[in-house]
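Example (one chain per record):
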Amino acid sequence: MIELRDLDTGDEEQLFQWRGEPEVARWMSDADVSGREAHRAWFHQLRTDPDLKGWMILRAGGPAGLLTLTGLTGHHRRAAWNWFVGDREARGRGVGRAAQVLGLDQAFGVLGLHKVWAEVMADNDAAMKIQTGAGFRREGYLRGHVLKDGQPRDVVLLGILAEEWAALAPEARRNLTDSGLIAA
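Predicted structure:
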């Protein structure tokens, strides 16, 4: 069963380890993890800043990944979406797909957002498939937008509106419930 839970202090070490793993770090468009203190500051801000919200993605009760929203306090009622599956054993098992549905329910239902948007590395086929499968639409393409290991990388902009999610959510939830990935 896939669930989301609010971050707690015990998650800091797990996230530090995941963010430093090559398979996770290669897709992160934000700054590389530069050390323990920088990570600690990032984690503290993620837990305390009202502009940010983070959830641990759980698989069978254990940590599997992270989902975040940033920009929550703006008057536009939109937020940037970031996520990753850090647990190697959880990859390719529907965790990302289920986390998308649960996270979009939080974003639009609980937090009352109008729009969720994301930047995805153009060559991250798995993330593109999962996010477009959840209803995100391509809104733009930014050439050489981020530097990874000193090299420019292209980024695809994706977005989904609350009314789009409202139309897609019942079937998305039903499919995941029928497959046993999320609770009814």
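Caption: The first helix runs from residue 11 to 20.
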